[in-house]
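Recap for those who missed Tuesday's class. We walked through two folding examples back to back. For each one, the amino acid string is listed first and its predicted structure tokens come directly after. Nothing is annotated here on purpose, so try labeling regions yourself before you check the end of the notes.
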Amino acid sequence: MAVMTAATPPVQSPTDRRVSARVGSISESATLAVDAKAKALKAAGRPVIGFGAGEPDFPTPDYIVDAAVEACRTPRFHRYTPAGGLPELKQAIADKTLRDSGYRVDPSQVLVTNGGKQAIYEAFAAILDPGDEVIVPAPYWTTYPESIRLAGGVPVEVVADETTGYRVSVEQLEAARTEHTKVLLFVSPSNPTGAVYSREQVEEIGRWAADKGLWVLTDEIYEHLVYGDAEFVSLPVVVPELADKCIVVNGVAKTYAMTGWRVGWVIGPKDVVKAATNLQSHATSNVSNVAQAAALAAVSGDLTAVAEMREAFDRRRRTMVRMLSEIDGVLCPEPEGAFYAYPSVKALLGKEIRGRRPQNSVELAALILEEAEVAVVPGEAFGTPGYLRLSYALGDEDLVEGVSRIQKLLGEARD
């Protein structure tokens, strides 16, 4: 009979465990947490400027809102619709995908989801078994590794830094591959770095994945937000032999300023999409019909409003990079896509700033919030300590004021 000593932890029975280990291991979304704290401080009267959330500051275009209003008056939208999405929206997504990226898919390959996050989770859940490994280039968006773990998989990080423009190489990917590797996660343009892979790099990575028999999940949510000479390239278009093992995730949130409408989608092989649809049929049923009607108007319309928003983001991008680069100890590569800057602040860690010496980017972000009243997200949230993420999807005046405050504070850093 075993004798329990002080060093032996008590065995917890299932009835004693209030939260499952699977869900209990999930951390809160760091980006949403920073945004919530910034909004709470503003509500309390503090002049906080938030660079935390990846959310366009523009209103949703009127023609999209009008479609939602009309849907509210349409009785068929008051009732259940197919769990996988409105047939007309699935067709429109297929048409939009061909128009925007040159990728031809059938509506039966489309699943409409409650935002991009659900699309990512359901895609991983449909193809991963316990212990399957997913190669995750870092810096990564906070939700990717959590979705992989929830689906039973194991995220394997491959880190890129500012010296390569935050782009991973095939050599790095191959070094991370094991007999348990099943999926490569590929994101271009990237959140949080704004990195965009060239057509040649996309093709090289795609052919490597195809040669190794891997699945690829590629997130194309920022497809329309590229700047300068950068070009968005859809991986299954340049590597068509990968299509049978490629899942594309996308949505209306970033392109059409519809973050709160919660409409995303999965495009993939029919058997995988059917499996993910079955999962959704038990998890949520159909996405809100009003939101689907709005998304239908969005993806069916032209890209005039998108071009106007992109022009504003481009202007803000250049302003933010210039101002951040003026700070001693800050290194800020110019992002080529999305709407984030991801500067390295490693040279500032350990320096004295207003009587404190932040040792990591979490402590530095906290200092910036407390002393400058500016909210940023520390690199720890994205798997790479020593960096900060700042979204430039906010008004020009707030952007300049916020970065000016950071300049003033960090300009006080002393050895």
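Example two. Treat it independently of the first, because the proteins are unrelated.
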Amino acid sequence: MQIKSFTFNPFQTNCYVLSDSAEAVIVDPSASSDAEMRVIREYIDTAGLTVKHVLLTHAHIDHIFGVADACSYFDVGYLMHRSDLLLMQGAAEQGRLFGVEIDQPGEPAGFLDEDSTIAVGGEQLTILHTPGHSPGSITFVADGGEVAVAGDVLFAGSIGRTDLWQGSLPVLMRSIFDKLVPLGEQTRVLPGHGPATTVGVELQSNPFLTGSYELK
């Protein structure tokens, strides 16, 4: 599977285009301006890709800026976990809280659950429900477990914040240890912010995972 990453908006949020055999999905269209959205469009159009879905790791505002635009331009719907639906329906309110504008997306085309799969060309994405940062956070696992597009669950050297609506540090840690760690140390983690890492590197050096951080 081919993976192209972009970083957009004032929150420096990663967007990923995953493709195989001329089919593609856009994960977290975080483009917050016409100029940023054109970058996604031009990449996909130049590569001759057909977008099948827009996929969301979760529905915090920095990950959904470009949902309405991407769905309209590529004539597709977006898919997410049902537990983040209230966040999505409150996108405009999220924007007001952060002092930014966002086009309110319509209703999702469907919902993704644990162990759901999505075909992209000849490849399959498997969904893991990984709550804690938000109640509906999910991770997209590609290439037979070698890649995990994890949103704001696990970062290089850190983890997602848990002080937002229905966030929970114990729940997030269980998601990491019960869902991501079993994928294997070689699994490449593509986070919602910052550089890529691997499960093995984080087990060795991430203070939240090594035991040097005490879960209270």
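Answers for example two:
The CA atoms of residues 132 and 171 lie 5 Å apart.
Residues 2-205 form a domain with the Metallo-beta-lactamase; Chain A fold (CATH 3.60.15.10).
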